[in-house]
Amino acid sequence: MHEVFVDTGAWLALTDRQDNLHAAAKSAFASLLQESHRLVTTNLVIAETYTLIRRRIGHATAMQFLTSTRTSPRVEIVFSVPKLESEAAHILSQYADQQFSYVDAVSFALICERAMEQAFAFDHHFLICGFVTLPS
Length: 136
Prior knowledge:
Layout: E1 3-6, H1 8-15, H2 22-34, E2 38-42, H3 43-56, H4 59-71, E3 75-78, H5 82-94, H6 102-113, E4 118-120, H7 124-128, E5 132-134
Parallel strand pairs: 1-2, 1-4, 2-3, 4-5
Helix pairs in contact: 1-2, 1-3, 3-4, 5-6
């Protein structure tokens, strides 16, 4: 099954109907599901997304997000481990001119480690690192 990385911005846009990228996220997500892609994310992305949903929408919606991502057979949550974090530090040092977050760098390290070709993301940092983003 083809793997696609899912970033915080995509999860947030899917969840928040008021987000200006909600329609684009919903359409891209439907396509990913229809094409039977495996959705891969990290525990750091999940934590970041939970926090943003909690602040924007509320506790109940944030908890629904946690439950749905943890129980979905289509979503794999990869936990940050020392090897990924070491590579993330290397990425951050290589891109000193960019405003990458630590979560971004761990995500980039995972995408490279697993040779994923695409990321469901609205963050232009993925493009800077040479990844293909969905929606394009």
